[in-house]
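Researcher: Structure for this, please.
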Amino acid sequence: MLLGIDIGGTTINLGLVKGSDIVVKKTVPSFAKEWTKQQTLDYLCDQISGIISPEVKHIGIGVPTLVDPVRGIAYQAANIPSWDEVNIKEAVEKRFGVPVSVNNDSNCFALGAAAKLGVRDRVVVGITLGTGLGVGVIVDGKLLDGTHCGVGEIGALPYNGHDYEEFCSKKFFTARHLGGKEAYDAAESGSEEALAMFDEFGRHLGEFLSVVMFAYDADCIILGGGVANSYKHFKTSMEKTLGMRYPYVKALESLRIEVLPQGDIPVLGASQLTN
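Model: Predicted structure, C-alpha cell format:
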C-alpha cells in the first residue's frame, strides 16, 4: 500500500493507493496563509495520521513549486508563504518512520496520468491546465525532473508580453472576468462570445504545444486540470495552430493527445514517486 498526497493552495488531497487505484480518499483545506512553517508541517502530519495504515510502505508528496527531490526540500511554494525552504521529507519521515519522496505537483500529474492510462510511449508529457500551467515529462517510463524538478517549467517562458501561463490556464478566463466553469457553461449553451473565447484559448494552447514538441518531441501529450473539461470547445483551434506552428509533419502524425481532467490524478502520481 502507498500513500499519495497533492498539496495545493486551496486543498490538500490524500489517497491510499493499491496498484493504480485510489482505495481511500481524503480532502482537507490547505494551510492558512498566516501559519508558520512548523504549524503547516504539524497540520500535514495530523492529516496523514488520519488516513495512514500499517500497510503503507511509502509516502509520496507533490507540491506546487521547485523541489530538491533527493533531500525532499521545497523552495518558495506558491500560495504557502512560510515555505521559503522546508524539509518535508525529514519532518514526515521523523513522524511516521516511512520513506518519503517529494516532487513537483505537475510531475506527479504526469506520473499519475501515465499510470492511469497505461501509457508506455517513450516520451510522455503531462500538462495541467488549471489555476496555473504545469508540465511533467516522462522518458522511457522514468520521470525527467531535473535538479530542482524544474524541467517542465516552460509555462514561464515569455509569450505575448507575459508568459504562456497567462494564456493557457484559468488565468486566461479570469482576466476576462469569467471562471473556467462559467465559460464552459456559456459555451455549452451556445454563447458565441464564449465559443470565440475558447477558440482563442485553443490558439494560444496550440502555440504552447508547439513549444512542448520542440522541447521534448513527445509521443503522447496528456491534458489535465479543470480547463481540460472544456477540451471539445478548444480542440479544433488548438490542433490547427499546432499544425501551423510545428513544422515536422511526421511527428504530428504519430502524436497522440489524451485528456484526463480528474482531480485525483496527482495523488496517484505522488504515490508512484521514488527517491
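Researcher: Any notable elements?
Model: The longest helix spans residues 192-216. The first strand starts at residue 2 and ends at 7.
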